[in-house]
Amino acid sequence: MSFGELLFFGGLVALANVGGGLLLARPGTFQRSRHFLRYLVALGAGFMLAAIFIEIVPEVVVLWGNGGTEGGEARHGGVLGAMTLLLAGYLLIHFFEHTIAPHFHFGEETHPEAVVRSSAAYTAIGGLSIHTFFDGASVASAFMVDRKVGLLVFVAVLLHKVPEGFTAASIILASGRSARRALIATLIIGGATLAGVLTVAILQTRVAEAVTYALPFSAGVTLYVAASDLIPEVNHMEHKNPFVSLVVFGGVALFYLLHMLIEG
Distance between CA atoms of 32 and 179, rounded to whole angstroms? Predict the structure, then answer.
């Protein structure tokens, strides 16, 4: 895939962050926005889980297994290395969210009427920026491996970008800052997403096989978002609306539908 195409798709996911912030920063939209986000979070969770286990992990196994066609032990070592990188990506986001940015939550759980210290708010935005950086890296890595994989990962990431932007804006508003500051926060995390895309694109032109390492690592990041951020959020929301949990299965169904359309 060309650099221009990567920039285009990276720009779209970054703009989705800003769009999520606009849902909250514009007066009178909070109540309408959070009902919409409930379903978007659940849809994104199902889609991302399906993309990880049906598309990304098999692609990673193929990439790392091919290096050891001489023997089963070598292939096993290659796949073990890939899964180690996947685990590292998962644990890295866990580390940042629970040490650097412990106040980070998705969607409606971060209410603008809550009181949040300014230092905690800015720390949370910093941690969220690291999180979104790897979102961009995931999209770029997937596109460089295969266009079909890239498109599916792009949709998976796009689905949770609006809740990310919403979360960033709500954190800033909760700290007593203005709607303008909230929008700036969404621009920062959107810029971090684009930076992740550009970093992988630049590394690939300078370091041979960079994507081979970036893809399993970013898969671990994506798995954390789906399984440890989004699914617990859905489980919490189902007490208010049990239908939300069923939307997770709708996300899986959407993945298979797009998968068949792209294959066709």
Answer: 17
- What is the tally of structural domains in the chain? 1
What are the helix (H) ranges across 106-209? 118-145, 147-174, 179-206
Per the CB < 8 A criterion, the answer to whether 60 and 82 are in contact is: yes
Q: Which residues contact 259 (CB under 8 A, 6 or more apart)?
A: 54, 55, 152
pLDDT 10s digits, 211-258: 788 889 888 988 888 888 888 878 887 666 778 889 999 999 999 998
CA angle 12, 235, 158 (to 5 degrees): 5
Structural domain boundaries enclosing 178: 3-263
For the entire predicted model, the pTM comes to 0.77
Other Cβ atoms within 10 Å of 93 Cβ, number: 21
One-letter amino acid of 206: R
Q: Which two tokens stand for residue 177?
A: 């800052």
Asked if 160 and 41 touch (Cβ cutoff 8 Å), the reply is yes
Handedness of CA 167, 233, 231, 64 (dihedral sign): positive
Structure token pair of residue 19: 């769009």
C-alpha to C-alpha distance for 111 and 98, rounded to whole angstroms: 19
Query: How far does the chain reach from its first CA to its final CA, in angstroms?
Result: 20
For residue 86, what pLDDT is reported? Answer: 94
- Choose among 60, 86, 87: nearest CA to 75: 60
- Is there a contact between 11 and 194 (Cβ–Cβ < 8 Å)? yes
Nearest in space to 255 (alpha carbons), one of 222, 220, 218 = 222
And the tokens for 93?
Answer: 């986001």
